[in-house]
Design a protein that fits this description.
By secondary structure, this protein is mostly beta strands. The chain folds into 3 domains: about 5-175, Porin (Beta Barrel); about 190-330, Porin, CATH 2.40.160; about 335-475, Porin (Beta Barrel), CATH 2.40.160.20. It is about 0% helix and about 60% strand. A hairpin with a 3-residue loop joins strand 12 and strand 13 (about 265-275).
Length: about 475
């Protein structure tokens, strides 16, 4: 019954060998994907890749794509890549490499490729190192096998990109290159509540004014380059305001400057990314968000971050005064744990879509997560999921969770809450929660397989509720 979940997780075993990897890179791409005879969607891809097999040129990675230009703001996919990256042996063109790979993931939105949400993308690229980065150009083929937009379910087109190594990706002689810097602050996972107060000219895609404030829930991962400069990766989903299905993914840089010893810091950051869905008119999807605020110590390992700024959609009719409140924690035991999970929903017979339709027997979602131990029994987590099968391709979730391992038994219980929406799923305003029970089995000394069953439903209305089966790899 759950063979798709099991097969997917077995395939992802190759990817989670990253735990042994000593090299990695951030890979960014841009391309135009035809949506109709008269419209292209400018899509941006962001991925993290590693070469986990010693001297092998095979790499694995995770990431996704989102609409950036055109009029499809809100299209997102997330998934995994398996590829081959090889430097061409020629002293006259040092740093020239060939890169071929295949991405598989799930998502959708903005009416671009309605259906189950599965996206397949193959690429063949030439890559040339220029200093500490590499520039890329080549051809890609995108396929959406279960879309109803059959005339444009596949296309071959050019793509450009840039690679930023976080550690040297292939050649040990350059192992000091890239962006790895020692003696930096601890990385942070920050749950965040964010609120939009729309400007007077902010619009819905249909032209109506956005009047109500909008609350979003999300989390940030901040990776410090040194004691003050950090990179931030952020994802959010709407929880109130009548715009369930709205989501955004951001990345950028921030500066944390001491004001009163370590007790109070001035925090400024600028993030850019992709946003849309929920009927908000973000145009092509490009979003820009400058913020300023404070980083205040509450207790050892605990800090609170109130910030204020603006959010702009340059190609759409949306802007808003933006406030956020984050709670960071750098305590706990050991390093951050990463996971890839496949979640299967079996909807209740009484569950109906927003249009009154019946759901598929199974809805499949692919997700990524971060977690950190509080002590030997308790850990906290943040995760994001996107649908790839079940005709709800634009549906996505963002969840916070707590997991407890009672009485030293090989069993754990978990509770997660957050936001979900899109794809016609009737989850009310967007607040959802789920509880699970499961177990873990060691794969090797650094990785384990988790299996969970449980129950999911909305917290503020909506007819959707489902039994949950979840399988994941954690390292």
């Amino acid at each position: 019954m759950y063979k798709n979940s099991i097969l997917l997780s077995c395939c992802l075993y190759l990817f989670v060998q990253v735990v042994n990897a000593e090299s990695g890179r951030v890979r960014v791409s841009y391309e135009d994907i035809p949506v109709s005879a008269t419209e292209d969607m400018g899509a941006m891809g962001v991925h993290y890749d590693v070469k986990p097999f010693g001297d092998s040129d095979v790499y694995a990675g995770f990431g996704g794509y989102g609409a950036l230009t055109g009029d499809r703001g809100g299209f997102f996919t997330g998934g995994v890549t398996l590829g081959y990256h090889h430097y061409i042996t020629n002293d006259a063109v040092d740093g020239l490499a060939i890169d071929a790979g295949l991405f598989a993931g799930g998502g959708g939105g903005a009416g671009a490729f309605p259906g189950g949400g599965l996206m397949l993308r193959s690429h063949l690229m030439l890559e040339q190192e220029v200093g500490d980065v590499a520039l890329r150009f080549g051809m890609v083929n995108t396929q959406f096998p279960n879309t109803s937009n059959s005339a444009y379910e596949q296309d071959t087109h050019p793509s450009i990109g840039i690679v930023i190594p976080t550690y040297q990706f292939n050649r040990p002689v350059l192992s000091q290159g890239g962006l790895k810097i020692a003696n930096k602050k601890a990385d942070k996972i920050i749950p965040v509540s964010l609120r939009y107060h729309p400007d007077s000219d902010a619009k819905r895609r249909g032209g109506a004014s956005l009047v109500d404030d909008i609350t979003l829930i999300g989390f940030q991962y901040q990776d410090y380059i040194n004691d003050s400069l950090y990179r931030t990766y952020e994802t959010y989903g709407a929880g109130t305001g009548g715009v369930d299905g709205y989501a955004k993914v951001l990345t950028g840089f921030g500066i944390n400057t001491e004001l009163v010893d370590d007790s109070v810091m001035l925090d400024t950051k600028l993030t850019v990314g992709m946003a849309g869905g929920g009927g908000i008119d973000t145009g092509g999807g490009l979003i820009v968000q400058p913020m300023i605020g404070l980083d205040i110590k509450l207790a050892d390992g605990w800090r609170i971050k109130p910030m204020l700024g603006k959010t702009y959609a340059p190609s759409g009719n949306f802007s808003a005064t933006t406030s956020e409140l984050g709670l960071s924690w750098t305590g706990g035991k050991g390093k951050t744990e990463y996971s890839i999970k496949n979640k299967t929903y079996q909807p209740d017979d009484s569950a109906r879509t927003k249009s009154g339709g019946v759901y598929a027997d199974r809805i499949e979602l692919l997700g990524f997560g971060l977690s950190k131990q509080v002590n030997d029994q308790v850990s906290v987590s943040g995760s994001a999921y996107g649908a790839y099968k079940g005709d709800v391709g634009a549906y996505a979730e963002g969840l916070f969770g707590i997991e407890v391992k009672p009485f030293d038994l090989p069993v754990h219980v978990g509770y997660e809450f957050g936001v979900g929406g899109g794809g016609g799923m009737d989850v009310g305003e967007g607040l959802i929660h789920q509880y699970t029970v499961g177990t873990r089995m060691a794969v090797n000394n650094t990785m384990d397989l988790s299996i969970d069953v449980g129950r999911m439903q909305g917290m503020d209305g909506g007819t959707f509720a489902a039994n949950v089966f979840q399988i994941g790899l954690n390292w």
